[in-house]
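In response to reviewer comment 3 from the previous cycle, which asked for concrete evidence that the modeling workflow produces usable outputs, we include below a single protein chain processed end to end. The sequence was submitted unchanged, and the resulting structure tokens are shown without manual editing.
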Amino acid sequence: MKKIKNESQLLQHAITLGVAYAAKRGYIGIDNTTTMKDKQEIIYRLLVQDKLVTPLAITDETTSNIRHKLVLWIMKCLPKDHSLLQ
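The workflow returned the following structure tokens.
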């Protein structure tokens, strides 16, 4: 995987928007006690189910690969002139 500039900030933004997306979709399983790893996996699985991201192979479903998929997803959602993409 290629290192992406501002990856940690993009991941935080993806988590924030992903949690809002999950709530809007009616998923109530994410709260303040949910770990970051679980939030990432929940958001990833919702996005795969809604066909917004392509699924990873089962053997490739690691935490780092899921994070990378979320970063790629948020990069596609942000406008081209967003500060995190510069």
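Residues 7-25 form the longest helix (19 residues). We consider this sufficient to address the reviewer's concern, and the full set will be provided in the supplementary archive.
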